[in-house]
Amino acid sequence: MAPRVVPLPFILVLLMVASSGFVSVTSTPIMGAYFANWAQYHTAPYTYTPENLAPIVGSLDHLMYAFAYIDPSSFAVTKVEPKDPQFYGEVMAYKKTNPNMKVLLSVGGWNMPSSIFSKMVSTKTNRAAFISSCVTAIKTTGFDGIDIDWEYPCSPQRTDHIKYSCAQFKSSTDAGGTCPQDTPNFSALLQEMRAAFGSTYMITVASQSAHKNWDKFDFKTMDNYIDYWHVMTYDYTVSDIANSSVTSPNCPLYSPPESSVVQWSLNYTVQGYLAAGVPASKIIIGIPLYGHTWFAPGLTGDAWKTYGLKGEIQGLCCGPFKQTYGAKYGKGCQLCGTMMVSEIDASGPQTFYDKKTETMIAYLPEDSSDGWTKAGTWITYNEETSAAAITKYAVDNKLAGVFVFDTSMDTMDFGSGTFTYKVSKTVRSVLNGGGPGPSPGSHVCTPAAQCNVCAACCKTYLKTQSDCDACVAQACPKTNVCQPSGSCTVCAACCKSYLKTQNDCDACVKSECT
Questions:
Q1: Which of 475, 470, 500, 463 lies closest to 485 in space, CA to CA?
Q2: Alpha-carbon dihedral 295, 296, 302, 305, rounded to 10 degrees
């Protein structure tokens, strides 16, 4: 997973295949999630620790604790945060609630230099030291296995900027990987890990979404030794870099048709993996619980409802990110060009669901309702409807499942300060065979599905969307009133002067007032 943008109660049947390594099979698609140990530093009310996991652990099959690092001298697994040992115990305690949940320790992440991984895998002695420390960590903490998040084999030299505050950054130069040796050395690591782990402990790999990066994996060999691929099907484009001025989707299910936008997508990646021989039964695809932002002021009418727009440098990010195209960092995550789903909800933007890519686009023509995000902020993200479409794709293509990155970024009830996990729960529902629910802004006339229309149209016989819409048009012309001057009948988040049309008002109510 990539903190650079910073990054289920079913039985797992494990089968050892002597000639081809360790293979896991499941009868029901898996739901996984990453827990971020750095989310403890999110600004209130977004601060997140293991106690906040309670409402969602019952829905999870796999939980990955992110991240542990590798000591560059001894090559032993080491903690990152002072509270990690405490958090390990608190996370593992949830296995009493959900004994079928597998908890893995994820090692690496974007902020851990790729060069350390490259050096660790370069010799059998170094690999043995790492593997021995993994076994010790598992036995000491009770983790069920290790998730390897090397970003990434054969990577080029880069400079990482880690933000502590607007005035304090830690910057380091990563020498990158070593090609072509990284490829066979990574395979050797996994082979030796499997020999040490046997059939007792799990091994997963967080893998790349771009062909030029996954091409550095020896899929055929590596697949013999791992349980699953956690495919990072997001960050296809980011905004917090100097040459990314064009608004583009973060995690599109399908490539956008606009010629100026990068033609990558989740479908592109999955089909590439399948063509490379990776079995569908080992592919778990990722959904990000954050969006990317650009600054595009002055958009009027429907001009914002598309990709391929030209962003401007806002200059409200900090330090080395100040002159990038990322819009001002989210209040909680403090990451340039990034807003968590919860932060997006709090900002109260206009929203438009793009069916071509199965992603949500949002825009703020005025400063946000929480007083943090500035007018002109344009956002691309994945919410419940998008998550449902992606999850259905996973089910239809018989993939192993879906994971979310990360739990701290899901929806909140700002009144109580509790996390409601609307996106994650949508994923679980679709994996269980449930439907994705109505599209954002649509009218709901069926009482069992919680009507959002006037009493005259909240009727069991109005089962189709067209019949429901017809009733609303005739009997509920002002079911929802968002105009302050027209005596608002909706929640404060939608009592906004810019929600001038009934469709925009209804869409806000559906998103924010339920």
A1: 500
A2: -50
Q: Give the 3-state DSSP-derived string for 294-333, with helices as H, strands as E and coil as C.
A: EECCCCCCCCCCCCCCECECCCCCCHHHCCCCECCCCCCC
Give me the chain's average pLDDT, please.
Answer: 89
Both tokens of residue 219? 């899929």
Distances (CA, A) of 103 to 278, 283, 378: 24, 18, 36
Q: What is the C-alpha end-to-end distance of the chain, expressed in Å?
A: 31
Architecture of the domain defined by 3-290+383-431? Alpha-Beta Barrel (3.20)
Contacts of 123 (CB under 8 A, 6+ apart): none
Question: Residues, the chain, total?
Answer: 514
With beta carbons less than 8 A apart as the criterion, state whether 295 and 313 touch: yes
Domain limits of the chain? 3-290+383-431, 447-512
Q: Which residue has the tokens 């998008």?
A: 386
pLDDT tens, position by position, 93-142: 999 999 999 999 999 999 999 999 999 999 999 999 999 999 999 999 99
pLDDT > 70 in the chain, percent: 89
Instruction: Examine the pLDDT at 514 and tell me if it is beyond 60.
Output: no
